[in-house]
Amino acid sequence: MTSTNLDLPLRSGVGIVVLNKENKVFVAKRIDNQKNFWQMPQGGVNKGEDYLDAAYRELEEETSIKNVELVKECDGLISYELPKNLLGIIWKGKYRGQEQKWFVMRFLGQDNQINIKTAQPEFSEWKWIELEKITDLVVDFKMHVYKNIQDQVRKIINL
C-alpha cells in the first residue's frame, strides 16, 4: 500500500501582511524560485509558540523588520496544499501543506531597516506593491490564500 499526501499533516504556520504608510504591501521573491513569484513573509510555528509570537519571529528572521505594530489578526485559519511536484521536497516531506494564521501589521520604520540578507536568507529581492497586485505575483497553489487575505485587508484599510 502506498501512502498518499493525505497521510501527511498540515504544518501550522503564520503569514504577515506588512503595510507601509501608503498601505502598500511588502512582498519578496524567494531565492529558490525560478519564476517571477513573490510572497508575503510567512513561516512555521514552533512547538509551544503562539501564532503572534511566531509571526513576529518569522518577520524578523526573514526581513529584519522589528518596528511594526499589530493592526489586526485576520479571521480564521487558511490552509493550502502543496502540488504533487513539491511533496516530499518542501519541509523534508513531513507535511502536505500549511494551515496559517495571518496578521496585518503596520511598518513603522524606514525602508533602509529592511534587510533580506539574513543569517539564513530566503529572499533575493523585495518591494512594496499595491494590495490589488498581490494576486498577480503569487504561486498558483497559494492563490486562494492571497485572495482571502486581500479581501480581509481591503476591509481593514477601507479600500
What are the SSEs and their pairings?
Blueprint: E1 10-19, E2 25-30, E3 38-39, E4 42-44, H1 51-63, E5 68-73, E6 78-81, E7 97-107, E8 123-129, H2 134-137, H3 143-156
Parallel strand pairs: 1-7
Antiparallel strand pairs: 1-4, 2-3, 2-8, 5-7, 6-7
Structure description:
- The structure is a single chain.
- The protein has 159 residues and is α+β, with helices and mostly antiparallel strands.
- The chain has a single domain (5-156), classed as Nucleoside Triphosphate Pyrophosphohydrolase (Alpha-Beta Complex), CATH 3.90.79.
- It is built from three helices and eight strands.
- The chain has helices at 51-63, 134-137, 143-156, and strands at residues 10-19, 25-30, 38-39, 42-44, 68-73, 78-81, 97-107, 123-129.
- Strands 1, 4, 5, 6 and 7 form a five-stranded mixed sheet that branches. Strands 3-2-8 form a three-stranded antiparallel sheet, with no helix packed on it.
- The longest helix has 14 residues, at 143-156.
- The N and C termini lie far apart (51 Å).
- 30% of the residues are buried.
- The model has no long low-confidence stretch (mean pLDDT 92).
Low-confidence stretches: none
Beta strand count: 8
Number of helices: 3
- At the fold tier of CATH, the topology name is Nucleoside Triphosphate Pyrophosphohydrolase
User: What gyration radius follows from the Cα positions, in whole Å?
Assistant: 15 Å
Name the beta content range: 25-35%
CATH architecture: Alpha-Beta Complex
End-to-end CA span: 51 Å
Please state the oligomeric state of the protein chains shown.
single chain
The major beta sheet can be summarized as: 5 strands, mixed
Global shape: globular
Overall residue-averaged pLDDT value: 92
**Order of helical and strand elements:** EEEEHEEEEHH
Helix fraction, binned, reads 10-25%
Structural class: alpha+beta
The CATH homologous superfamily is termed Nucleoside Triphosphate Pyrophosphohydrolase
Identify the CATH class.
Alpha Beta
The tally of structural domains comes to 1
